[in-house]
């Protein structure tokens, strides 16, 4: 199991090594959650790079495109698992400000790796999974530097393997933005 943690951590570092300076990322996040299937808990550390800050604009808000990388740890009744993901995120931020709070919604789909193919007695079928992220929350702070939101993550192999039970997580996200 320690080998899997090491391999996943090294993969995460290799993916983000080219960006390794203090302004490489636009935001850093922590998310905590629980599986919808059982008692598994999740802790994720993430970084986000804004690729297109104004992908489109409407009369009510602005759409943007970001790339989010994350490494996570799951604990299920004493068994530990690791995961790493790289997910493009489309984020729509409403311009209407409610006492300094701006609502947002987000959606993204991207690849991920998990350290084991059986989690919570669910057969994932592969270490390579696809992660769907759906979320909503608020942006706040004097410089709009904080994001607080809820997220739903679904991870499965998209029926590329014979087993595909998938994993679903509900998470609370706190993000600090440097932008």
Keywords:
179 residues, mainly beta, Porin, two-stranded antiparallel sheet, 1 helix
Describe this structure in words.
This protein has 179 residues and is mainly β. The protein has a single domain, classed as Porin, CATH 2.40.160.20. The chain has one helix and ten strands; from the N terminus they run H-E-E-E-E-E-E-E-E-E-E. It has one helix at residues 2-16; strands at residues 27-35, 41-57, 61-76, 79-94, 102-114, 118-119, 122-123, 128-140, 146-156, 167-177. Strands 1-2-3-4-5-8-9-10 form an eight-stranded antiparallel β-barrel. A hairpin with a 5-residue loop joins strand 1 (27-35) and strand 2 (41-57). It is elongated. The model has no long low-confidence stretch (mean pLDDT 88).
Blueprint (SSEs and pairs):
Elements: H1 2-16, E1 27-35, E2 41-57, E3 61-76, E4 79-94, E5 102-114, E6 118-119, E7 122-123, E8 128-140, E9 146-156, E10 167-177
In short:
With 179 residues, the chain is mainly β. It is built from one helix and ten strands; from the N terminus they run αββββββββββ.
Taking all Cα atoms into account, the compactness measure Rg is: 17 Å
- Mean pLDDT over the full residue set: 88
How many domains? The number is 1
Residues in helix, %: under 10%
For the record, give the distance between the C-alpha atoms at the N and C termini, rounded to a whole number: 37 Å
What's the total count of β strands? 10
Using the alpha-carbon principal axes, give the shape.
Answer: elongated
| Percentage of β-strand residues | over 45%
Q: Runs with pLDDT <50, length 5+? A: none
The CATH C-level name is: Mainly Beta
What oligomeric state do these chains adopt? single chain
**CATH topology tier name:** Porin
- CATH A-level architecture: Beta Barrel
Number of H- or I-type helical stretches = 1
